[in-house]
Known about the structure:
Blueprint lengths: L1 H21 L5 E2 L2 E2 L4 H10 L3 E2 L7 E5 L2 E10 L2 E9 L5 H17 L3 E3 L15 H7 L5 E6 L6 H9 L3 E2 L2 E2 L5 H20 E11 L2 E10 L10
Helix pairs in contact: 1-6
Amino acid sequence: MKKLLCVTIALLYATAMQAQDEKAGVTKFLGIPIDGYKPAMIEKLKAKGFIPSIAGKDVLEGEFNGVDVHVHIATNNNKVWRIMLADQNTCGETDIKIRFNRLCRQFENNPKYIPRTKPNKEQTIPDDEHLSYEMAVNNKGYAAFYSQVPDSVTKEQALGYLTGPIEDMTGPIGELSPEKVVEHYSNLQKCAMAFENKTVGFMIHEESAEKYRICMFYENRYNDANGEDL
């Protein structure tokens, strides 16, 4: 009973501390934390090679992942919470499906990201899918969502914590040492918070009849509006 009490106290302490510590680990774009004020963010993006655009005030442009994009910065209570990138040029249905599916594969193969879907659920678009029909008639949207993995764990560890049983290789959770229990739940809490708050995704936007572009977003949901101003 004494051991159980100690473990419970340690878990509560670890959970509370981890909730505070993990908030500092926000979503990053090109290594830049998505946080702080818009003017500072604009200067940091300029240092990465983006330049002011004629598309609008505080809009930047440049190349990202081999594509020319416009960069938009969204704020809540003057704090940056989203970086949105929109393709400068549109393309047809075949090319946008190729681009969308290529992005899916790039994110799936990147050790910094885990999919925000059920395990093994496919996010790519089938080759025989008719986008214009599905979007116009069935009001279907095409988007893929991922979360950035915390810096202190690997992609494999994060997937294990979020989808695996509550145990590790040494045995069931009840047979673990208090230190192992604290470590397990600390990492579980960290991964769960990252999964909810460090979001990256992209979607297909139909600009005009059968002309499409990709819109991609990097979000720090710690800074997102949660009804606190209502």
